[in-house]
Structure to design on (357 residues):
């Protein structure tokens, strides 16, 4: 009997292949989609929902994004973009809203029409958030009407329904992470503020507001004491130049005018801002489609090579370096230099699901 059981275990047939439908693979292996089920993965859920709003802003369709931390571990994200379409999708036969929220790789990131560039996680972002939430509600305002749909662990409770009229346009997503997936659900306000301040610098002209409605704080004013909720609003017309100013505050800049260049070439938009400071340490930050590539990549390698070559050429032409002198090294060039490199391109190739490189 034991032998039979052992043989059965070792048999590899069609029955051995498990097919997971819909969003089941996400719930089965969440780490493959959000990196981990710890604090990084938990905060990644907010990033994924907001990424859709930032994509709308990068495409010129949204100006305001609101992120609200609510009681009971809920988060609400609202934008004034075009609103996710709600009409029936010809491939799925379901509402486009339901398609986007329940099918992996369904989104406006794959065709040529909706977005030139996007930062969404391979277009799976919002459906992954839905799969890993015990509750999610989506509300869409477009074409003069408001629509909503609710989900439990990625499954719709009912079809999309019209709930009234709307004068504005946009999308509101409210979700609550699933305690079966995330053993500890504690959103860190400082972490969220730092991340979305960065996003506001990278998407100049978009206003990002963050409100924490979980615990009121006591405020003293001339009219007396009252309770209020912490709020932060970020809006930067200067983009990367403003970001360099922020990073170098109090560090004694060597060149007052921050160098900035932005140029589109072969459908890739490249921005670089840099400034030397009166310190030896250097700071380099690189981004691809607004995603912070912590481990660098070709854009950072290319920048390093270019600045080393250009400054060495300049030094030789102007006799700072004689014929017998060795070239200055890249490390020498970058001492005391604060740099931000941002590229926006159609089909970036990232290493790993969380796009560190």
């Amino acid at each position: 009997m034991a032998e039979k059981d052992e043989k059965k275990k070792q048999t590899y047939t069609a029955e051995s292949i498990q097919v997971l439908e819909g969003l089941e693979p996400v719930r089965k292996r969440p780490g493959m989609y959000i990196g981990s089920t710890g604090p990084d993965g938990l905060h990644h859920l907010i990033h994924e929902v907001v990424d859709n709003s930032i994509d709308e802003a990068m495409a010129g369709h949204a100006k305001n994004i609101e992120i609200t931390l609510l009681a009971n571990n809920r988060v609400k994200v609202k934008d004034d973009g075009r609103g996710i379409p709600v009409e029936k999708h010809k491939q799925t036969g379901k509402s486009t809203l339901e398609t986007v929220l329940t099918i992996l790789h369904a989104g406006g990131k794959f065709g040529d029409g909706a977005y030139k560039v996007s930062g969404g996680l391979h277009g799976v972002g919002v459906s992954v958030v839905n799969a890993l939430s015990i509750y999610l509600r989506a509300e869409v305002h477009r074409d003069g009407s408001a629509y909503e749909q609710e989900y439990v662990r990625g499954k719709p409770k009912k079809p999309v329904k019209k709930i009234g009229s709307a004068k504005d346009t946009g999308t509101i997503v409210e979700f609550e992470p699933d305690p079966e997936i995330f053993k500890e659900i504690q959103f860190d306000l400082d972490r969220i503020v730092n991340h979305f301040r960065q996003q506001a610098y990278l998407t100049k002209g978009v206003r990002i507001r963050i409100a924490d409605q979980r615990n009121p704080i006591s405020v003293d004013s001339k009219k007396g004491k009252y309770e209020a909720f912490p709020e932060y609003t970020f809006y930067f017309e200067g983009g990367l130049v403003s970001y360099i100013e922020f990073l170098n505050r109090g560090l004694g800049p060597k060149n007052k005018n921050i160098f900035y260049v932005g140029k589109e070439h072969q459908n890739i938009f490249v921005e670089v801002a840099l400034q030397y400071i009166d310190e030896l340490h250097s700071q380099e930050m690189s981004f691809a489609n607004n995603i912070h590539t912590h481990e660098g990549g070709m854009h950072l390698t290319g920048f390093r090579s270019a600045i080393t070559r250009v400054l060495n050429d300049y030094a030789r032409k102007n006799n700072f370096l004689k014929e017998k002198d060795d070239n200055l090294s890249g490390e020498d060039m970058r001492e005391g230099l604060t740099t931000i490199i941002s590229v926006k391109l159609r089909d970036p190739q990232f290493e790993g699901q969380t796009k560190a490189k």
